[in-house]
Amino acid sequence: MRKTFIESLIKEARQNPNIFLITPDLGFSVLEPFAEEFPDRFLNVGIAEQNAVGVATGLALSGKIVYVYSIIPFVTMRCFEQVRIDVAYMNTKVRLVGVGAGFSYGSAGATHHAIEDIAVMRALPNMTVCCPGDPLEVKGIVQESVTYQGPMYIRLAKSGEPQIHPDDTEIQIGKSVVVHEGDQFAILTTSNMLDVGYKVAQVFRRQGVKCSLISFHTLKPFDHLKVAELIDSELPIITLEEHNIIGGLGSIVAEQIAESGRGVKFKRIAIPDQYSHFVGSQAYIREKFGLSESQIVETIQSFIGF
Amino acid sequence: MEDVQITKNIRKSILDMMYTSRSSHIGSCFSIVEILYTLYFRILKIRGTQFDLVVDDKFILSKAHGSVALYATLGERGFFDKKKLEEYYVDGGSLPGHLDMKSASGIECSGGSLGHGLSIGIGMAIANQKSNVYVLLGDGECNEGSVWEAVMLASHLQLANLTAIIDYNKLQGFGETNEVINQKNLHERWSAFGWNAIEVNGHNVDELEKELKRPSDKPKAIIAHTIKGKGVSFMENKLEWHYKSPNKDEYLLARSELEGAL
Fold first, then answer.
1. A54 and B122: CB-CB below 8 Å?
2. What CATH number did the domain enclosing B6 receive?
């Protein structure tokens, strides 16, 4: 995803001279092509996230479109007050681009895991929150981010994520993408769980169980219309995300279901409200928290009652 | 004498707003009056006509608890009708306790939490290389680590169009600045980080103007020695006036002192 991000940004920067990229000294072996092609529009501010966001704000207040790239906890929480006041309150065209959704940096330890970022970012007025699930969604979001108004947070996974959608799929900020239609239950995914959700759906569909699979690459503004349709159809809804169970996709959908006054069957699958003290890869830690493909299949089976 | 008259007017407006609203930070506002006067009447490139002014340079009040001094200066300079000053801090008003860039013409940047302005100033200085960018910080604000992140980067980038002004009034939240966190060597600190650091009397507008205009090939730090509460004898150098607003007797006394200051 990070490779797709930088390739897409370079493409946009060739067309738009106002695009600027800042890093607090992260992105080695990813950002170099941009830095080489646009040396005057690339700035490594050193290991100083607060300053990175402040400088980005000053540039944005002067008409630039500024992308700040780092690992998720550092570009969102280390500098949270700069994000709150300089970016969100002043409603500036800063794009916080975080890499390492969920347990992408598994073995690196909990300091590098991103499990609270969605909750924190979506609570900020003016902030758009995008969590692309495959390279095609990354491409579409980066493309639209150039002209999109106000500040944005773009949550990337890491590298090697497969493309799920066909090439001609239209990606539009604020609009979900239906991968499969189905009439037995619906799996809603966001961010890097699209790939897992896709595999889970395949398992059920191979058994002749017709489930829907919908990717929510934007959590704010949220595609409430799509969820309203699901509530109307009275399908059981399952949300799937690699984020704390508090404050992410599951919370958004829960709020909507609760306010709809319609009791549809509903299950959130996410990281339980705890930090990982496990050592291991993303796949290993996912399994520890019940987020592997086979565990999710089992969870859904017992929830639906097959 | 014009400068004395205008700075006196600014202080009177500050006093009126603080008395009416019963809000804090009068001492912090009085210490920066000459700095703001020098910037808005002698330094910043400002064009346009009354109530329709545009600043070609950039100014950020990073110590945004001095907002009232900025409102009073902008009113005096003609950015908006001075009647707007009555809209400070009241229900249905338009000027908040700390800065909202949407609240009035002439405010380039919102603020209210310390340690943000200098970084934003760097971004502006990079994007506007033909303009000058001025950022006014408090001495206590220099406790914030983020200030030093910005100090390092500005000198690394040799941003000669960036000037930081430090309001060195020597008092902050809990007492004397150098007793809270010793930074008596403020000049050496900024110099050591690669800035052109200059110490001035922050209430002498000619000295301020001269040093603000002095050419520099690197970012400049004007360490302005000031007096918290400057202009009203019983408020000068008194920590309590970081918080207190004047009662009626104090207001009248202060008003008569300011009237007599000519």
1. yes
2. 3.40.50.970
Give yes or no for residue B103 having a pLDDT over 90: yes
Which chain A residues are within 8 Å of B153, Cβ to Cβ? 45-46, 48, 51, 55
Is B156 near chain A, with CB under 8 Å?
A: yes
d(CA B201, nearest CA chain A) in Å: 29
**Given a cut of 60, is residue B262 above it in pLDDT?**
no
For residue B253, pLDDT beyond 90: yes
Same domain, A151 and A249: no
By Cβ distance, the residue of A50, A54, A89 closest to B123 is A54
Residues of chain B found within 8 Å of residue A86, distances taken between Cβ atoms: 110, 116, 119-120
- Domain limits at B18? 2-259
Q: What is the mean pLDDT of residues A17-25?
A: 98
A/B interface, count of CB pairs below 8 Å: 86
**pLDDT for residue A306:** 73
Co-location of A147 and A198 in the same domain: no
What is the complex's ipTM, to 2 decimals? 0.95
Start-to-end Cα distance in chain A: 36
Burial A105-143 (b: 16+ CB within 10 A, else e): bbeeeeebbbbbbbbbbbebeebbbbbbbbbbbbbbbbb
Supply the DSSP symbol for B95: B
**Shared domain check, A299 and A202:** yes
Cβ-based neighbour number of residue A261 at 10 Å: 7
Model confidence over A128-148: pLDDT tens digits? 999 999 999 999 999 999 999
Chain A positions touching B120 (Cβ under 8 A) are 54-55, 57-58, 61, 86
Nearest to A85 among B113, B121, B123 (CB): B113
Q: Is the N-terminal amide bond of A236 cis, ω within 30° of 0?
A: no
* CB-CB neighbours of B52 under 10 Å: 11
pLDDT band at B261 (very low <50, low <70, confident <90, very high): low
**Per-residue pLDDT tens digits for B9-38:** 999 999 999 999 999 999 999 999 999 999
- Would you say A12 and A4 are in contact if contact means Cβ atoms under 8 Å apart? no
Residue A47 lies in a domain: yes
* CA angle, residues B40, B42, B46, in degrees to nearest 5: 55
The answer to whether residue A164 sits within a structural domain is no
Among candidate residues B112, B186, B200, B113, the one with its CA nearest the CA of residue B151? B186
Split at pLDDT 50, 70, 90, the class of A175 is very high
Question: How far is A138 from A135, CA to CA, in rounded Å?
Answer: 5
Q: Which of residues 124-153 of B touch A (CB under 8 A)?
A: 124-128, 145-146, 149-150, 152-153
DSSP state letter for B218: S
Place of tokens 């291991």: A280
- Measured distance CA(B203)–CA(B167) in Å, rounded: 10
pLDDT in tens, A180-199: 999 999 999 999 999 999 99
pLDDT of residue B2: 85
Q: Which residue of A has its CA nearest to B135?
A: A58
